[in-house]
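Reviewers of the previous submission asked for a worked example of the structure-prediction workflow described in the proposal, so we include one complete record here. The input consisted solely of the amino acid sequence. No template or homolog information was supplied to the procedure at any stage.
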Amino acid sequence: MTPIPKAMTIAGSDSGGGAGIQADLKTFAALGVYGTSALTAVTAQNTIGVTAVHEVPTNIIAAQIDAVFTDIGADAVKTGMLASSSIIECVASELRRHAIPWLVVDPVMVAKSGDPLLWEDAVDTLRTWLVPLASVVTPNIPEAETLTGMKITSDAEVRRAAEDIVAMGANAVVVKGGHREGPAADLFYDGSLFQEFSAPRIDTPNTHGTGCTFASAIAAGLARGMSVLDAVGLAKEYVTEAIRRSLPVGAGHGPLNHFYKLWE
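From that input alone, the workflow returned the following structure tokens.
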């Protein structure tokens, strides 16, 4: 039998099912990849907001990662909510130890509702411990501003931020344009090539979990053997259609429709 591609998510749980490891595992499954997970935090969360966060002890996080890699393995790993400096250091150490082939870092800092998911003092740890391990980093505009310390309001500033993040040690970056006006344009940069991935902006409040889904779709593409550029292209197409067919769930920002191909 042909081995199935495998991808692992190291992230927080969303009790509402729209973001976090729930969105990641749905994305992996929808794109033909076997998904595994290491839980970093439990959140009490719905489409309106985050009401509680409980961080998982680092020894349990390390044990989850080790359990998966010593048996199942992973062709690609995606990180999401890591919450604290100690968790980031733990995850980075485990990823180095297991020499993972592809790493997609989604530098999750704030939930769609505006609630913080990364402690302020952990930003520098993320920048120095995890970004240098990344095959691809996928910040939105506010996250790119936090990582680089610059204000981003123009195309030139998006490019400069992308250059700064690659200079931190990442192999590539996709600065997502969802927070800017006009088309939903994401900028890829790998140290030599700039490539824009653009799609029409879809007028819907149901965008909860978009960032998690995008990064997981890239990881799925890499696990399937795609080039980084092709994996980003796959992710852009998948997320765009999942937003277009998003689900009217809850009173706030509803989730994407991860299984739109199956739920015709």
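The chain has a mean pLDDT of 94. We consider this example representative of the routine output the project will generate in years two and three.
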